[in-house]
Amino acid sequence: MTEATGIVGEFLALKEETDADILAMQCGDFYEFFAEDAEIVADELDLKISQKSSHGSSYPMAGVPLDDLTPYLSALVERGYRVAVADQYETDDGHAREISRVVTPGTHLATTDDDAQYLAAVVRDGEGGDAKRTGTDATYGIAVADVTTGQFLVTEQSGADATAAALTELYKFDPAEVLPGPEVRSDDAFLDEVRERTDASLSLHTTEAFAPGRARHRVREQFGAETLESVGIADADAAVRAAGAVISYVDETGAGVLASMTRLQSFDESAYVDLDATTQRNLELTETMQGDREGSLFATVDHTVTSAGGRLLREWLQRPRRSRGELTRRQSAVAALAEAAMARDQLRETLGDAYDLERLASKAASGSADARDLRAVQETLALLPAVGDLIAETERLAESPLADVLDRPDREAAAELATDLDEALVEDPPGTVTQGGLIRQGFDPDLDEIIEAHESALAWIEELPEREKRKTGITHLSVDRNRTDGYYIQVGNSETDQVPDEYEQIKSLKNSERYVVPELEDREREILRLEERRHEMEREIFERLRDRVAARAEVLQETGRALAECDALASLAAHAVRNDWTRPELTDGRALAVEQGRHPVVEQTTQFVPNDLRMDDERQFLIVTGPNMSGKSTYMRQAALITLLAQVGSFVPARSARVGLVDGIYTRVGALDELAQGRSTFMVEMQELSNILHSASDDSLVILDEVGRGTATYDGISIAWAATEYLANRIQAKTLFATHYHELTALGEELPTVENVHVAADESDGDVTFLRTVRDGPTNRSYGIHVADLAGVPEPVVDRSRDVLTRLREEKAIEVQGSDRGDGGETEQVVFDLGSGELVTEGTNSTQQQVATDGSQTAAPANDSDGRSLDSETEAILDELDDIDVNETPPVELMAKVQNWQEQLEDSDADAN
Ligand code: ADP
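Above: the input record for the complex with adenosine-5'-diphosphate. Below: its predicted structure, written as tokens.
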């Protein structure tokens, strides 16, 4: 290909300079994309593509008008592209172009989404271990910033589970973009997990930005020299490195929002309830297991009226608190709002007029706020006194912690800024800042002079037609203006003979003629001059105003957060009242006592049957049994969600509740999605169990919805059994464990703190009716066999199942029926030995080991114990079976193997007969 010159050459040269995926280059009134970039953009955004020739070659080209770039940028960035924007500027000899910013998923300001948009950096000091679990002595530093609101958080994770904890944090923030530090960059396993758990795009930022000295300097420069000490992270090198990298990235991409990043917050993990990624998903906090927003806890309880309020409520749900102080504060505010119904409605109505101040602060800082945005700032700041009065005038609210929420922002500074903006800006300003009409008269004397002269020149023009009509007697005469002719006088054809000599004709139209007169031309020049001056001055004043707002970013953010908090609290109160929720009593003990509890989401769509739950020191582990679909999962999730809501500061769906505060909620339920991803379910199940057994403490709440189902029955029972013992005896976590292994219910009698409960079902007239009521004790029958019976399985099979079941429950060995092969040989008893979980033969053959009926003895291997010698083919199959690693083999492959074996066995049977 020939080297491109001209505009395409310039484009390609600029593209070389940036590591962005796409370049948008300003060419006059358009942003153009060339070559490959044009093709991508045309493809992604449905733009028309044309050809531009340069130096004998032809290049694809696509473009968007200057003012329309933002939505196109948003669309590209949402699809994960990083887009560089090159702007054109005037020089002495024409114009030049330069890349002014790179818009990336984590630094995009004009997001259309209400949710937080996080940019994260993650670094590691020390040796990393297995990305999935334990075994590192590394420290991870994570910094997270939301450029759209100025929020900036740092945290460190260290200890044995540092890697898992770091990944959990990333999952919680669900960042749009992640900057992996130099050590993490080469850790494929870690990066794979990030890709799998989040929708983030991974971006490379220069290694130097992560260097400790440089990063520290950056952080001090941004937040002030003392900040690291006052936030308590002066020694947190990893966190500081991550923070420095984020700042430098935001700076380098040119988002221009550094000024709105006013506050560094250290994020102390131990203040929050530990909720790992699996649990967040299992409890369907922000989306359902199927990935829908609708049907999640957040969608159910969210009645906020502002986007900032919604963001905050969501954050609360994702980060329940451990400390009673903060929770009691929120609870009291919710209680007050729940009682003061009228004031609550008024408050919510007032808040409904609020704009997103945190986002507006970032827009002001980046210079992208227009006059309407500043009006929105003014109107929202002006709500503060109204909200304050409302609270002050309502006794119930005035006495509640809600009053303190409003005392946090600097109300004086907010009022002052609101007044200034109100005095400066016209009531309803236009959406563009270059065309004037922004600033009120009386705000700036110099501008007023210009405005006056401008207005009077315009008035002269306005009166001109009347004057001319009077002077000339022409009736069809008008004055107008357009781009090509400027101002002109237009006279209808019937009267053109009456125009005075001084009229100079400039254009002939079908029914009229256009003229100018010297004075009109003078006035026109004056108007143009004044107009330009006026626009320029208004723009200057506006920009000064915008800078003032940017300098006050902190006031905006504080006010925004206070209003958001009122909104979130009022939303919780509104939900509590509508759904008859109750204020839970929070205790430091380990009790969880719920009277008439409901599931917060299920109760919305179902005639819900409330249930009690009682857990305390003597009753800390509940084995939940009951038929399929009876409501076991719902009951357990309800316990978890009531605990979680209590630790958000919310009321809970129950008649009464006493909740011992927990340090973590851990869950394990059927792993549908992992199965879909082709990972072995059993492996995942065991990983989740392992994680729980490592992380939970005696202050935790553990929910296990079936453990051990992914493997052979006796394997499964054994694991479930041992896990129960470990949780109940060693960890002593509050645990609810639903199992279909009836055998486990024996533990309820054996272990002092383990109790059985069951979800009752009523069986009459051959139908099972689910009662949805939870009662003490284990289920007393097997509904599986009952269902088999209902389904018409032959009677002997059903009867025999009952018999086998009884024996299994009594832990008796079962003789295998029909083992008399009738071949004239000795009659043998094959027995399934419950001790070993294997088939053994109880024959008269003295070489065979006798098995006691209590199953206490180890049995001999069963493979050829009936004396049959196996053919070589069968042996080969058994060897293969022995070798195969079930956990590592994809299910599909396993099925194929089994099918293959069956075919081989059939063949060999056929051969034998
Ligand atoms: P299991 O875990 O025992 O298989 P689930 O908890 O999944 O059963 O519940 C089965 C169905 O019963 C769900 O559709 C659920 O909405 C409904 N359900 C569960 N508990 C209740 C209840 N207390 N009141 C009304 N419906 C319930």
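Notes for the reader.
Residues 490 and 514 are 5 Å apart (CA to CA).
Confidence is low (pLDDT under 50) at residues 671-676, 819-829, 843-868.
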